[in-house]
Design goal:
By secondary structure, the protein is an alpha/beta fold. The protein contains 13 helices and 16 strands. Strand 2, helix 2 and strand 3 form a beta-alpha-beta unit. Bound molecules: iron/sulfur cluster. The site of iron/sulfur cluster (SF4) has 12 residues, from helix 12.
């Protein structure tokens, strides 16, 4: 079973944060010396990371810089974008041509790769996987944290779907996604996950409703990483069927209670979130009174509000959040320890989206 360890770094400087996460996890312990390391970002569409849809190339740069400092020299970056998107175009638009040049990494479009069928006994399924991924000596999964209309969450496990041919992606959808995603995680073990949690999407894997969370986090167990990601955006891990199945198939464990969490820079959360800049996130932000709120609080709050809106349970009063409420007394609801003087309020710095959801859902109006 992979080590139950998570490292979380708050901020927006993705390259530095990714390097801090790698250092805290001491990833050099877990990678074969001298191996070619393959990075798998999420480039589902050809849109920059500010859209909320894709992994920023500076996450890849941080991981490669750290490994370079520790003696690794050979890197590859692989992806097969969503049906109808040319991966080469996604590499270009998302900034991967430039980052690959900087580190001498190969860029491999998995749409042009041969594929092999793998039987996953635990799942009672075969999955077809691109050969470059199957033969990789070490895979580092670099997802972006997003909600997903069908699967609820797309992060570490679901990002691996970019390692299968297009016809297999279609079959995954026909099979309802959850079992094949968990089976693929069993067929394609990853050495490490580093998540771009700086900007993700509120509802949809192709972006359009970007929400800032201002953090990078990672670990060796993709199920554990996804369990943490699920909590951030307002879900219990058991609400995501592919996480439960992946546990059942022996991929890892989603038990956050049994994991060691290393929060690297709790006191350095960037103050003053950028306003929700589009679509549904901007609409939900109208129900929030934010004063110098960190995105680490504001982002999970928007995710919780989205889940409440889906359930028709949005609070009737504006929800208050941010460092600007420190020391003030008054009416809540307030979210985060900065609103301790408001009644009612939810402690935590920051609270998870799931804790916010439970708090707001149980409010007496
Ligand atoms: S509780 Fe306050 S300091 Fe902590 S994350 Fe929220 S807004 Fe920032």
């Amino acid at each position: 079973m992979p080590e139950a360890l998570l490292a979380i770094a708050y901020g927006r400087a993705r390259r530095e944060l990714a390097m801090q996460v790698c250092a805290a996890l001491k990833i050099e312990r877990r990678l074969p010396p001298g191996a070619t390391v393959w990075l798998k970002p999420n480039l589902v569409v050809a849109k920059p990371s500010s859209s909320g849809a894709t992994t920023d190339p500076e996450i890849a740069a941080g991981v490669m810089a750290y490994l370079n400092d520790h003696g690794w020299r050979r890197f590859g970056i692989m992806e097969s974008s969503w049906l109808g998107t040319a991966t080469r175009e996604a590499f270009r638009v998302c900034g991967y041509e430039e980052v690959a040049r900087r580190f001498g990494a190969q860029l491999v479009d998995l749409k042009a790769d041969a594929a092999e069928r793998m039987e996953v006994e635990e799942a009672g399924l075969t999955v077809e996987v691109c050969r470059t991924a199957l033969r990789a000596e070490a895979i580092i999964d670099l997802p972006v944290l997003k909600a997903h209309s069908q699967a609820k969450l797309t992060c570490a496990l679901k990002n691996l779907k970019g390692c299968v041919p297009d016809r297999e992606k279609r079959r995954f959808h026909a099979l309802g996604l959850h079992r094949p995603i968990a089976a693929l995680a069993k067929a394609l073990p990853v050495a490490l996950v580093v998540v771009d949690g700086v900007t993700g999407d509120l509802t949809f894997e192709e972006g359009g409703n970007p929400v800032d969370m201002d953090q990078v986090f990672g670990g060796f167990d993709p199920v554990l990483v996804d369990a943490y990601a699920a909590e951030l955006i307002g879900y219990a891990p058991w609400e995501i069927p592919y996480l439960t199945l992946a546990e059942e198939f022996g991929v890892g464990s989603g038990s956050l209670a049994q994991a060691r969490l290393l929060v690297l820079n709790s006191g350095e959360k960037p103050r003053g979130s950028r306003p929700a800049c589009g679509g549904r996130a901007a609409v939900l932000a109208e129900a929030v009174e934010a004063r110098e709120a960190c995105s680490a609080c504001y982002g999970p709050l928007l995710h919780a509000m989205a889940r409440l809106k889906e359930a028709g349970r949005l609070p009737s009063r504006p929800v208050r959040v941010g460092q600007g409420f420190r020391g003030l007394r008054g009416e809540g609801p307030g979210v985060g320890s900065c609103t301790a003087g408001l009644a009612p309020h939810l402690p935590g710095c920051p609270p998870t989206g799931r804790a916010i959801l439970d708090f707001l859902r149980d409010l007496k109006e």
